Amino acid sequence: MPIKKYKPTTNARRRSSVQTFDDVTSKKPEKSLTRPRKERAGRTLGSITVRHRGGGHKKQYRVIDYLREKLDVPAKVKTIEYDPNRGARIALVAYADGEKRYIIAPDKLKAGDSIITTKTADVEMQTGNRLPLERLPLGAFVHAVELVPGNGAKLARGAGVAMQLMAVEGKYATLKMPSGEIRNINKKCMATIGAVSNPDWRLIRWGKAGRTRHRGIKPTVRGKVMNPVDHPHGGGEGSSPIGMKHPKTPWGKPALGVKTRRKNKQSDSLILQRRRNKRKK
């Protein structure tokens, strides 16, 4: 998906870019696979759990088949579609028995291509096919990977991402994640060959606040410009520093770079190498 820039007729246009949608082949979604999507505005049971969410353009949810449990039934890609709920494209596939489903579209998958999900048969290692990790060649890039066999895709579902199969030994397969973390996953877990579509998604420059509001993201106010009653960073004279050893959340908890992973987590033994440290020491 190329990125398009307009003539800088305004300040917003000068700093923004948009998708071209050249890879989209259908503008109308499959009605049987859409559901109403109620706006929750970052709330769980009425309490705000994610701040700065709300509003945005009305949209319908597309039912995505993360499990792909129809084994050894070939499917043909009917259309590649835009999904307002994610950065990646989705593909409408029609199985040989007539059933239609949406899947996350792999990169370079086109309308008319045939894909299959299998555990035993020897199939061509082509983009879009879904197999157990133990049957994939070493070095292969995969996405939509399961964490537990039969639970559906959990890892590498975002636009443009992929995981690389490093080794298969014993009951585990070793994969390198997009973050750089290397971990073991049960080799019986299913994975889809190829990277996720729309790799240029992260290159979009939104340009103005209005486009961000259309996405359902509200403005964020810095804590240091608040009053002391509203935030631990608040108060002071002018553009003063936060006045404490480390940054804090509005509720006084440590923030920015603090490790939040629970200690002695069961899956710690499966992580061989933590994700790379992007901060310079």
Description:
The structure is a single chain. This protein is mainly β and 281 residues long. 4% of the residues lie in helices and 25% in strands. The protein has 2 domains: 199 residues, OB fold (Dihydrolipoamide Acetyltransferase, E2P), CATH 2.40.50.140; 50 residues, Ribosomal protein L2, domain 3. It contains 2 helices and 19 strands. Strands 11-18-12-15-16-17-19 form a 7-stranded antiparallel β-sheet, with no helix packed on it. Strands 9-8-7-10 form a 4-stranded antiparallel β-sheet, with no helix packed on it. Strands 1-2 form a two-stranded antiparallel ribbon. It is globular, with a radius of gyration of 22 Å.
Condensed summary:
With about 280 residues, the protein is mainly beta. It has two helices and 19 strands.
Largest sheet: 7 strands, antiparallel
Q: Which stretches are low in confidence, meaning pLDDT under 50 for 5 or more residues running?
A: none
| Number of beta strands | 19
Helix tally equals: 2
- The CATH homologous superfamily of the largest domain corresponds to Nucleic acid-binding proteins
What is the C-alpha radius of gyration, as a whole number of Å?
22 Å
CATH architecture of the largest domain: Beta Barrel
Structural class: mainly beta
- Largest sheet: spatial strand order: 11-18-12-15-16-17-19
Morphology: globular
State the separation between the terminal residues, measured CA to CA: 36 Å
What is the third-level CATH name, the topology of the largest domain? OB fold (Dihydrolipoamide Acetyltransferase, E2P)
Beta-strand percent range: 15-25%
What is the CATH class of the largest domain?
Mainly Beta
Helices and strands, in N-to-C order?
Answer: EHEEEEEEEEEEEEEEEEEHE
Helical fraction: under 10%
